Amino acid sequence: MLFVDGRIWMVGFVALCLSCSTTPELEKSDTTPASYNSVSIAYLKSLYRDIPITVEENCWIEGTVVSSDREGNIYKMLYVEDSTGGIGIRLDDDRLFARFSVGSVVKVSCNSLTVGSYAGMIELGLAPTDGSRRVRNIPNELIASVIAVLPSTEHEVIPTPLTLDGLSALLLGCLVSFDDVQFVDEEVGLAWCDEGASTNRHLIDRNRNTLIVRTNGEADFADELLPAFSGYIEGILTYFNGEYQLVVSDSRNVFMDQNYGKPRFPVNENEKNVRLRQKADSVP
Fold this sequence. Notes:
It is built from two helices and 17 strands. The chain has helices spanning 41-46, 140-146, and strands spanning 16-18, 37-38, 53-55, 59-65, 77-82, 85-90, 105-109, 114-118, 121-125, 147-149, 160-162, 175-183, 199-204, 210-215, 231-240, 243-247, 254-255. A hairpin with a 2-residue loop joins strand 15 and strand 16 (243-247). It starts with 15 loop residues before the first strand and ends in a 29-residue tail after the last strand. Mean pLDDT is 87; it is low at 1-31 and 272-279.
């Protein structure tokens, strides 16, 4: 998926208020009222200006579900993507895969929701009450009033192909893929996670560009060994304190083992800029 020109962010003006410390009263309707206006995900994210912003206008976003928490690597978060970008929505449910299948199209009513940030990653949820920028989970009993699955819309999701030297902040929250990559030599033989802990591992390409792969210690595959071959991997592109990260949503879409991968490649030793962490220049 490609992003439209940044001018789409200026389709209209949304009335806003600063986040307050109380839980907002959310609309309790299973459908989006006709009076609501459609806005893009890119525009919604552009509202954030270093402080949480609560949306007062009756507006909604429509996008495709691109994440699954079935394997436990994504927790109480639903990533939704449209043609302009992706965003994570914090939801108080640890079985979202049973309600929102990958490829289904959803409408998200944004009225009274807050656009915030966690370690630089823009998210959607309820206004924080602790003075931080991190939004809170939408309670389970209110999820149906906020997110509606459009009937007969499920379709195949094609990740956006990227290279490790071509990461873009515009693709944060989107499903992306990388080919011809492998885990660094120092990590071959290790599990996805250290015992009982969420862990960073590192992809590398032939030119020594790298990317963190972040895995939840509670993921179903956390104790499995990292694939030792080179090949293909896909996941959600995220961001944490200045660093891009990849979060695998479905381990079945990692093709880097002896059955599906390719032999490991030699890394270009002439590259002087050796990085085990890929820095993001800017985040919208």
